[in-house]
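To fix ideas, we reproduce below one chain and its tokenised fold.
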Amino acid sequence: MEKYSISFTLGRASDQHGVNLAHNNRQFTAPNVDESRSCQNISYVRQGVREAYQQLFSAALGEYNAAQKKPCRRIQDYYSHIANGRREEPYYEAVVQFGDVRTAPCGSERGEIARQMLDEYMRGFQERNPNLHVFNAVLHLDEASPHLHIDFVPFYTQGRVNGLRKGVSMRSALDEMGFRAKSPRENRLVAWEARERTEMESILHRHGYIREDVGAHYAHMTVEEYKYTMDHERSAEALMRVKGAAAGNLSEDRVRRLQAELSGTSSRLEQLEHERQSPYRAFFYSAQEKQAWILEKLEEMDIPFRETENGFEAQACYVQIIRRLEKEYKAPRSLIRDQLREQLDRLVMQCDTVDDLTDTLREQGYDVRRGKYLSVRPPESSAYIRLKSLGEYYSEFALKNRIAARLRYEKALEKCIADARRADAPTLYVLRTVQLYTIAFSQGALPIRRRDAHKPFAWTNDAELDRLFLLHRRISEGATLDSLRADLAEKEKTASEKADCLDAAQAKLRRYYEMKELLEVLFGGKLSPVFSPDQAEQLLHEFPTINESNWRNIDRLIEAQQEAVSKASAEDDAARQELREAAMLVTAMEKVMGGTYVQSLVADENDRRDSEIVPNGIRPGGGAIQ
């Protein structure tokens, strides 16, 4: 009976080369794609991932946000929340294939049978996996062999007391579909993948074929184990070839190098096998900041771990390293103390004396104790905090000096306004806006925005005032609204040109990488999943000057182009920053001249504090946003 191999590979959205939706949907064409056959590709589903999130979670997200009393706890963009978080993948991609480029190439009779089986597999995927929402699926028939890309979002619908009633979780999705972990190595994901491969075998049987067991001895290896095993086998084969060569052809250096390489890969394989056999241990920390810090360190050290609902799991062979990291961790400053600093920073800008400041603290529910040192007890704390313990800027003497400095600043500002009014200076509108800003802040209508996060808030450490004084300087130099708009248009043009240069540099670097792949296949004997030797030879016909003696020069070209991309990227970032600053100046100038600068800031802050808006643009009360 004839045989087909089967391949089922799962990739994650966060994998550097794991998922490429633009490639799947042919938004760009790679060199290994035959564009004349792209029209034969079958697109089953094509939905944007954000659109999928909106369809799946908008109702649950609206309910969750409506229940949050604190605006900071609301989730404005669930996709970004998941993508930027550390707990879940925003989506996954399964790549499915019957046969390979040798046994079932596109255009052959066996390739057509593989296409039929992939189509049958795809049409049953969503029914088998109700908790995996497929938002993009395409069958490629324009590459070397037929294969299927299935992109999906895993979601749960039950079992959550806190958080969204419906949300993203691969583990919970598999739980709801009935998959259970038998052991750390035979977890839910392994069980699900085994079920999908079983389904592929069933499709084979229905078409009258059986499974070809290709590379079965690698079935349970990790990627790293597989790579080192292949390195080991290549080294051993090369060593045998050298030892079997004629004595006159032997190179002692080469033999010595291969022996060292073989020894190194053997040691690494033993280490990997030890890690593979090591059982998992569970770790849990009541402080989420501590857990996040330790997981970040584990990632930096390339130590594998898997997050759980209550913490994370890592293999027992890494316990000592994790215990060392636990001792190195230093807890952040208390949140209560940070809140007290924030409140004192605000009151320094509102009160004219330290006595006024302490009276205001009492009105806000703080207990104040005057003695050798000024101490306060916040409403949510059971202990008094000496203000001097908050840092050098918060002792009673420092607070007195900060208040005096603020009063001097405001008096100097009044003098500048009077001088500008007498001279009818064009900067009068800006100075008057600065004064209105200080008044609005003192009344509690505006948030604190420090320029330097390591220093206490002051009029000289206010990011918003920095913008106004930048505008003040430009006007003093002769800038007008028209000239600022013209400068903005020029900056837009420059930013567009720099972006085009960066795109061109990145495209050239991608071409070099593709060229290197071709050359390694043709001259280096590499087995590539992208190009066959015949394809490589055909594509390199247009480069007759490249041969076996000079093809390694591609590495120097890649290195030089990487530097070009870095330079273009830096120039693009600089142009974008200049564009942002130019746009900010035009907007600020328009609002200052219209007398709405401070009013717009206050309105934005009121929206931030009081708004119940959810991401779909509807208020909970049902009224559309005006």
Residues 481-595 form one domain. The CA atoms of residues 330 and 493 lie 48 Å apart.
